[in-house]
Inverse folding.
């Protein structure tokens, strides 16, 4: 019996996208059966075209080249700048892109499940999501998680 | 260094790409064949042994030179 990994992905930010795809792709490489259940803002990670952002606002731990006071962080363009900076850093350090990790997840058989309730709540459309994902609800996740060796809420 | 049948150089790539690339390469290989994996990510010193332990592949050799870590992995029979 392969080991099982169950993840709930609830965040739709650039930094929030890494842990679920990174761990699930690695788990698949280690021979795990892995499933990710995407709910609320995590559903953004399923869009065909990803435009994920990261913001220093409300995130005092985010390293910035110069200190930026919160009052300045609300200015237009600051989030775009922070996102550009983070993406540049990720590339420079040889870190895989979110798209690349997601592709590896799909290729290696990680099941991506969209939470149907939040898809309806936000009026998202399944055709906007990448191909090959399934949908389900709380019981779908709990059934798999009840047999999982590792369960994470991210 | 021991002989090997395939080689991948992941220099400059960070976690988890060396593991993912090793997996992909091993998928193409037969049991008993050896993979030479070159890594610059220092985390690989722990990650590659963990990968081998979990997948039934053997870590035959590890050496370090000029900031690069060289692993020789032998594909196990289980194909995990």
């Amino acid at each position: 019996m392969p080991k099982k990994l169950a993840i709930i992905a609830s965040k739709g930010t650039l930094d929030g996208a890494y842990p679920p795809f990174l761990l699930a792709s690695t788990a698949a490489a280690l021979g795990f059966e892995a499933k990710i259940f995407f709910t609320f803002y995590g559903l953004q990670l399923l869009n065909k075209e990803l435009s994920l952002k990261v913001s220093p606002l409300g995130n005092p731990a985010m390293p910035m080249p110069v200190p930026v006071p919160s009052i300045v962080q609300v200015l237009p363009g600051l989030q775009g700048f922070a996102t550009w900076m983070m993406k540049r850093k990720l590339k420079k350090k040889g870190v895989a892109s979110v798209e690349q990790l997601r592709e590896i997840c799909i290729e290696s058989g990680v099941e991506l499940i969209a939470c149907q309730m939040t898809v309806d709540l936000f009026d998202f459309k399944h055709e906007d999501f990448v191909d090959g994902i399934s949908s389900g609800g709380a019981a779908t996740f709990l059934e798999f998680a009840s047999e999982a060796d590792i369960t994470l809420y991210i | 260094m021991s002989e090997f049948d395939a080689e991948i150089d992941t220099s400059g790539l960070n976690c988890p790409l060396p593991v993912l690339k090793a997996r992909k390469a091993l998928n193409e290989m037969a049991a008993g064949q050896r993979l030479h994996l070159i890594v610059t990510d220092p985390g690989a010193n722990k990650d590659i042994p963990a990968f081998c332990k979990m997948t039934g592949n053997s870590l035959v050799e590890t050496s370090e030179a000029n900031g690069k870590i060289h692993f020789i992995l032998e594909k196990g029979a289980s194909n995990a």
Summary: The first strand of chain B starts at residue 6 and ends at 9. The interface with chain A takes residues 12-17, 19-20, 22-23, 41, 51, 54-55, 80 of chain B (CB under 8 Å). Chain B has a mean pLDDT of 94.
